Amino acid sequence: DSKQSKITAFFVKT
Amino acid sequence: FEAKWDHASTLKKVIDAVKDLIGDTSWDCTNTGMSLQSMDSSHVALVHVLLKSEGFESYRCDRNVSMGISLNSMAKVLKCAGNDDSVTLRHESESSVVNFAFESHKEERVSEFELKLMNIDTEHLGIPETEYDSIIKMPSADLRRTCADLSQFGDSVTISCAKSDVRFETSGDIGTGNVRLSARGSSDKPETEIAIEMINPVSLTFALKYLNFFTKAAPLSDTVKLCMSNNHPLCVEFPMPEVGYIRYYLAPKIDE
Questions:
Q1: Share of chain A above pLDDT 70, in %
Q2: Among B46, B127, B207, whose Cβ lies nearest the Cβ of A4?
Q3: CA distance A7 to chain B (A)
Q4: Which of B1, B65, B82, B251 could form a disulfide linkage to A7, CB 3.0–4.6 angstroms apart?
């Protein structure tokens, strides 16, 4: 099974 | 701030390409152009639109401004413009509205609308420069069709890129499906070319729902670029030569 990751896990808040 | 396009069609297509994914957003206007960056409500996808000042008929931005706008309202306003009408956007410092003026090229019809601005708290994410493992350039209609076809069979698509072909695979309750696209050159019609630049093989899984949102940008650009690295968000870029681009980023599904 695969889980949807969030974009916020890859790109950091500026 | 004052920006004018010769034809409303491009702006109409840009809004249509992003409004269903992101509802309210801020347009950031500087002297180099207008841009927006926004995530969808579930924070899985990110949209980045750039409209360069050179792409406008005329463009002036004396002071940087961030205009919070409901894209659905902007789409409603733009419905009142004919495709060939010119569009002028105006915003004065400290004003709580943005003005839209549409003018037919024979100048016999001018319409003006005023849209209320919204206060939007935007979280800006830094998008790092990435050396992608695989870059695929293909006709945008091919991507749209592939995603639409595979959506009939499954919710997710696995995109695997090898040296000379790219494979899209899905499976669901009723069965499985896959589409393989092979690299093909075309010197007389570059827009029909499929070019694969592979440094390392890549295989990533994505929710088709989002890819179907992204391909709404296909009317803006004959070609699309898919940039992929393992365990990294996919970047789907629709270039608009001389005007700018729409880039969509999508977080991959990861094995539990």
A1: 93
A2: B207
A3: 5
A4: B251
Tens of pLDDT, residues B82-98? 999 999 999 999 899 99
Interval B107-136: pLDDT, tens: 899 999 999 999 988 778 899 889 999 999
Residues in CB range of B17: below 8 A, 6 or more apart: B216, B217, B219, B220, B238, B246
Contact at CB, B43 and A14, closer than 8 angstroms: no
Do the chains contact at A11 and B252, CB–CB below 8 Å? Answer: no
The pLDDT > 90 percentage for chain B reads: 88
- This complex has an ipTM of 0.94
Question: Which whole-number Å values give the CA distances from B167 to B138, B150, B151, B182, in the listed order?
Answer: 13, 12, 15, 9
The answer to whether B205 contacts chain A (CB < 8 Å) is yes
Burial of A14 (0-12, 13-18, 19+ CB in 10 A): exposed
The answer, for B131 touching chain A at a CB cutoff of 8 Å, is no
